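User: Design a sequence. Structure:
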């Protein structure tokens, strides 16, 4: 979700769907994916100029150039419409392919005749609003995909097929792509997702005409994940397969003996028939740092409907308690009472949203959180987004929105904080938290304005 936030001492405004221009991590901001597509077109032009100078030697670079050109067309079509990438698998594939392709481009150009091209590309990326995707971006996108998978309980195979909740509108992932996601999970000691994605990689590599990854490598990830998830017999089975596809594998024999010893300390090898084994278990571990995880993920899936007895107490009305509102009343819908949640309808226009986007775009930076122990602002894995801040004095639209919140909430804006704009990337999120300061935090009221007492959110669709 792409968001724009306005944290206030009295209220917080949250808007979505900003189209920012910002340096930094690609994975933290959805809008950067679109800019990567544009960068792909620019890279294509640079490569084409070089290819003209050395046609025969650079046939492979021509192919890469065509791939760069195709990225934006695949997403936006031949007419170059401004459709935004909605499918997270598509976004992951684009970032990963661009990252892989540029590494390959560099290898092809390690000659003197390529120095000019490299210089041109370096100059272009240095002056560009977005840099080429890095390993950090691929990791960030993979983590985002796994978070989306968990929150919405998506099937691994469907995701690899580019299908999200029954809608097929993304590219398919290769076995190598799937194993990259498994590798990211493995490096984070997340063997639940390691097993899901390594198993999908194994299914795919067996069907690929030209395998994109070594079979033994895939099997080793599966075997170890099976072991870590308590499926010792399945670990033995997959390690045995490693020895079949690669008899000289350097770790297979040692691992196989280790797993067999776990089943029989006397070291007697046991023949494993996978057809007679119960299905492997793969339990998603609890996250002790987020005790509310299951509840908030269920809310995202709309699994907690309002009981009928509470729904009967909800209603809509026109807010007319201020002179200005006599002429232009605000549409209000009471959504929930404890805590009180109110839906204000039609309180921001497309034109105002466009102005906010334009103002905020050049200012977006990686969002930070307040460390309750140190009192300092810092980046955190539980808040993945980019944000910017706007003052009322920067534009009449900002001031107009501030005045409107005053009328919506009947709360003074004199102690309000600046307008915060947040743009979330693939799987971007902010873990469950309180907007107000809580006991034990360092200097929560250093500005002398008191605690936050309400939050106003404006969600604006990115597509």
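Assistant: Done.
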């Amino acid at each position: 979700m792409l968001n724009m936030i306005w944290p206030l001492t009295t209220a917080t405004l949250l808007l979505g769907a900003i189209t920012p221009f910002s340096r930094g991590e690609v994975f933290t901001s959805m809008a950067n994916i679109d800019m990567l597509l544009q960068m792909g077109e620019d890279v294509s032009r640079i490569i084409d100029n070089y290819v003209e100078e050395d046609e025969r030697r650079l046939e492979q670079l021509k192919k890469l150039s065509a791939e760069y050109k195709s990225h934006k067309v695949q997403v936006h079509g031949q007419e170059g419409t401004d459709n935004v990438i909605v499918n997270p698998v598509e976004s992951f594939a684009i970032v990963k392919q661009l990252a892989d392709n540029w590494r390959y481009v560099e290898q092809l150009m390690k000659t003197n005749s390529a120095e000019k091209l490299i210089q041109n590309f370096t100059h272009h990326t240095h002056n560009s609003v977005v840099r080429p995707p890095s390993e950090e971006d691929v990791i960030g996108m993979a983590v985002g995909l796994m978070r989306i998978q968990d929150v919405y309980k998506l099937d691994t195979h469907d995701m690899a097929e580019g299908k999200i909740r029954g809608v097929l509108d993304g590219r398919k992932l290769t076995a190598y792509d799937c194993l990259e996601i498994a590798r990211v999970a493995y490096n984070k000691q997340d063997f639940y997702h390691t097993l899901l994605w390594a198993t999908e990689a194994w299914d795919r590599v067996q069907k690929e005409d030209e395998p994109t990854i070594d079979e033994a490598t895939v099997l080793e990830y599966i075997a170890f994940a099976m072991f870590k998830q308590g499926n010792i017999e399945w670990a033995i089975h997959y390690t045995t397969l490693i020895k079949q596809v690669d008899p000289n594998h350097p770790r297979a024999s040692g691992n196989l003996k280790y797993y067999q010893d776990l089943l029989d300390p006397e070291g007697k090898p046991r023949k494993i028939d996978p057809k007679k084994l119960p299905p492997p278990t793969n339990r998603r571990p609890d996250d002790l740092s987020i005790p509310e995880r299951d509840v908030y993920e269920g809310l995202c899936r709309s699994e907690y409907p309002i009981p009928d007895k509470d729904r009967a107490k909800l209603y809509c009305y026109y807010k007319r308690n201020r002179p200005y509102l006599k002429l232009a009343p605000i549409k209000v819908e009471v959504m929930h009472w404890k805590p009180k949640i109110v839906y204000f309808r039609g309180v921001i226009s497309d034109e105002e949203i466009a102005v906010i986007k334009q103002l905020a775009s050049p200012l977006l930076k990686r969002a930070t959180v307040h460390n309750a122990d140190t009192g300092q602002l810092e980046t955190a894995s539980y808040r993945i987004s980019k944000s910017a801040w706007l003052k009322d004095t920067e534009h009449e639209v900002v001031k107009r929105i501030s005045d409107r919140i005053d009328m919506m909430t009947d709360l003074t804006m004199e102690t309000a904080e600046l307008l915060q704009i947040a743009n979330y990337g693939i799987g971007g999120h902010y873990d469950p938290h309180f907007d107000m300061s809580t006991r034990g935090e360092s200097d929560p009221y250093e500005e002398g304005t008191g605690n936050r007492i309400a939050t106003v959110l404006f969600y604006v669709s990115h597509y």
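The chain has three domains: 1-21+333-463, 27-133, 153-300. The first helix runs from residue 30 to 53.
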